[in-house]
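User: I'll paste a sequence; please echo it back and then give the predicted structure.

Assistant: Echoing your sequence first, then the prediction.
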Amino acid sequence: MACNLVIGLSSDFPPYHAKNSKQKWQGITVDLTKSLVELAGCSLSFVEAPWARSIRLLQSGDIQLISHFTMTPERSKYSQFLGPNHTEKIAFVAKNTISEHVTHATLLPKFEGTIGITRGDEFGTEFSQYVFDTAEVKSKLVIIKNNQDRVAMLLRGRLDGMFFDEMSAQRFLAKSSTLKQNYSIRFTFQATPVYWGVSHQFVSVEIRKRLNQAWLYMLQKNMIEPVYKKYGLTINMSKFDFELVSLLGEENELQK
């Protein structure tokens, strides 16, 4: 291989990434990234770090890739965005015994409990409007280091609710009838596209161009849907029709 790229992964986040019994990473994100990087003529390594630390590592160049990356102006200062490779829908999961009437984002200020969120999370403009930009909701937030700790705190009663990827939340609640009795998805936010973040300072122009070509090939050869099917899931690729397929900006690269 002509190059090695390192992607940062936080703690187990099924079905996207998790370690198997042999402590090897597997999941939708892992499989898609492996295909992308291999098609670009590179090898792939993994670094496990909490989400917020992974973002800092991308900024410093200690990793070159990150996935499930929501596009923001601030992140564009140090990252380019390749994709979208997924459309993320965030769910609000809460105890069934608290604030039963809170079934929509507009009612979050009336939620009578604490809400867990992972440090560094960004989920698009609607989420920001109803959570980060609403003082009554922001005051209820408990910032957690990683996804595993957030779920553990909910189960131990140290949180009353949490924000969670919908697909992951459904898997979490399906683990047992007790979980379904005690917790539920109250509502979801509007789906937003997420991307691979690629360091534009620490990944060369040539490799970025090869990543571009690899992603186009994966789309043309319909390589995304089979990965979801492998994990017993489906994806509606027509959802991507509503988002421009964003490749690393060649017009910017020509200027470098």
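The domain at 90-188 is CATH 3.40.190.10 (D-Maltodextrin-Binding Protein; domain 2). Confidence is low (pLDDT under 50) at residues 251-256.
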